[in-house]
Structures are given as structure tokens and as C-alpha cells.
Amino acid sequence: MTTTATTTANETNTAALIHLSTLTQYFIPFGNYIFPILIWSAKKKESAFIDANGKSVLNFQLSMFLYTLITLLISIPIFIYCIFKNVTINEFSDGGDLIIENFNSGNITGMVILAFVAILLFCFLKVIEFILIIYASVKASNGEVYKYPLSISFLK
């Protein structure tokens, strides 16, 4: 989506910086929220182009957080269920020791596969996020507002 009014070089650079500032998440916890919010809130009243790009960035980051949270909320209970389904714990038998029975390589295979799939899905989300951030910053530097795919519009 291109903007209707001409954008200045300063606006396109600021919009690209907003997109690229989300990459600070790899160095600073929650940097993908802090820095775009700081830049966007400082410049959103000066330009509709910067405002639209800032909202796009924040909507995408919030969507990625939601997708990661959903992945965790699904995989962790399943993982815990697999552990308790395949393990029998006899407390205080034979002198007060905690004994874990039926925990062998056959029972652990399902848990390892589940953990591998969850980690693979998380890594896939992060790689796609990285690629889309770079692509969006290039689009912003060309004067376009990039709408991230699968992004939920939290900010309108």
C-alpha cells in the first residue's frame, strides 16, 4: 500500500527505523516493544506515514507475542500431561524414597517429539518475523506502508 501524499526522506527513514528497532529484541529484553513505541510516540503526530508504520509494527509485534503465547499455552500442558501419563510416582515406598517407575526411552520419545515440534515452530516464527521486519523496513524506506501478514489490528 503506497501513501497518497509524498513522504519526505526524514519520514521514510524514521519509518524504516521503527521497523528495524524491533530487532533490538535480540539484545534487549522487550526491546521490540520499547524502542518502536518510543520512536512512534515521539513522531506520530508529525506524519500520518510514520503513524501508520508505527501502528503496523506494534500490531505485528503484539500478534507475534500472542502467537508465541498460544504455542506455549498449548505445548506446555500437553508436555506435562505426557510426563504424568507415562510416569508412575510411588512416594515413600521402601524406606521413604521417591521412586519413579515406567520412565524409559519408549515413554520419553513422545515428549521429545513434542518438545522438538514446539521449538521448531518457535524458531520458524522467529525466522519469519526477522525476514518480514527487514522486508517491511525496505518498503518503508521506499515510501510504502507495509501491512504484515497474519497481523491482528490491535491499534487502529
TrEMBL record:
TM segment ranges: 26-43, 64-88, 108-138
Source taxon at top rank: Bacteria
Topology term for the membrane: Multi-pass membrane protein
InterPro entries with a match to the protein in the record: MamF_MmsF
Location relative to the cell: Membrane
Keyword presence, Phosphoprotein: no
Annotated protein name in UniProt: DUF4870 domain-containing protein
